[in-house]
From TrEMBL:
Residues 20-190 form the FAD-binding PCMH-type domain. One of its GO terms (cellular component) is membrane. This is L-galactono-1,4-lactone dehydrogenase. It comes from Chrysochromulina tobinii. It holds the Pfam family ALO. NCBIfam families: GLDHase. GO terms for molecular function: D-arabinono-1,4-lactone oxidase activity; FAD binding; galactonolactone dehydrogenase activity. The lineage of its organism: Eukaryota, Haptista, Haptophyta, Prymnesiophyceae, Prymnesiales. InterPro entries: ALO_C, FAD-bd_PCMH, FAD-bd_PCMH-like_sf, FAD-bd_PCMH_sub1, FAD-bd_PCMH_sub2, FAD_lactone_oxidase-like, GL_DH, Oxid_FAD_bind_N. Keywords: Oxidoreductase.
Amino acid sequence: MALKAESEADVRIENWSGTHTASPSLYFQPDTPSAVERIVALAHAAGARLRVVGSKISPNGIGLSDEAMLDMAQLDAVLSVDVANRTATVQAGVRVREVVEALRPHGLTLQNYASIAEQQIGGFLQVGAHGTGAGVPPVDEQVIRMVLQTPALGRLELSPTHNPALFHLAKVGLGWLGVVTEVTLQCVPAHKLLQHTFVLTRQEVVERHLDNLRHQHMRYMWLPHTDTVVVVTCDPIVEGMALPPPPTTSESDATRPLRELLLASSAALGKPVAAARAAEMSFAQLRDELLALAPLEREHVIRVNRAEAAFWKQSEGYRVDWSDKLLGFECGGQQWVSEICFPCGTLARPDGNDLRYMRDLLALIEPSDLPTPAPIEQRWTRSSSARMSPAHSEQADDIFSWVGIIMYLPTQDAEQREAITRRFAQYNALCRDKLWPVYGAHQHWAKIEMPESADELTHLRRRLAARFPLAELNQAKRELDPKGILGNTLVDSLLLETPNTASSAAAA
């Protein structure tokens, strides 16, 4: 009863992509650390399940539950900024963009960013967001101190010098060991970057890849069924350097190939789009409208990819702005996405597996009957010291590549969305079965979906146990959360030590 008095009822939660929903029995929105402490303690005493959630951006709904949920959005304060030591201490519910704006007057910023600035800092770190740059680690490496509210041991303060083993285990802890309430981040001086967007052929990527990797930040966008690879690099501006002129092509001119295809295709299908309406659409909106016409028709998707290739060719050029403005980017509309991470040598000695993976992936999907929209995003990071990061390594100079496949959900028609979901599951399964074991690839924690069969779950659990320190994680779980209140069906099924325990937890 004490728990129910502090909660909301009849709440329906949906993640950003609209791919997962939950109707929690109790929904808490505490606004102080003491309120979090009280709710966690009451849930522990009652043995009641309680799942912590951030901005609900994770594609797999990792923070959702039909049992009780703890929303951290109101713990959103920037508590202090230490300019001399370049650190910021923030509450876990503050959004990345809010941290950036609080740091700006002090001449500081974050070292790296993921694509979406609406993420809360707690979720940003707990699921292992990563950004890009072969010499830059995932974002969890910016954490130098964290406060974890645990069911059994209460408030714990963790850092590299204060309980370091648990600190490195809990940094990417998936909200499973405790509720992160406060984080201290190591910042860097605010800086502007020179961004260069250009297009290469696949062969040119092979020839120039080692040079491309040396940029501070770099990513590829591979466009299936085209010979186009979009390269986006970002590097610090050196004082006194001559800056190239900005692009001269307007967005209206650059998007013309997509707009013309939309007008022609919509008319041919008897669903004409008005030219005036099309003229007002951005690149991402045009792509969504085009895909909505026939999202599962392979030849149509190929035409859209080729129009996108023409758009990027017209969009080549340079741009100068603050790092936070350039390192985030437009992800498009609602979508299914699966992203994996695998080792590819060191920055000094890359082993070539990053490009071999893409060669094998394209050779696998392009002859198939799958509709494979663009882009396939490829990024890189240095290794992470967080034990549960897919990019974890004891060697600081190891590098990892991250590759994401996608299918958009440009329609609200339930049957069509279900059909797209089934096709994406086939796309993902093809990669999972043919490529991941070969390259030692593991999925981003926010993009692992619950396996559809017991055999698939068993196989996934074996792969996770071979890659991650699950015995140590479960030992910490027994000490910090002995009643197992902080999980949900997905996380418990993947991480709890025995399938029987996972099954009973899923049914609880």
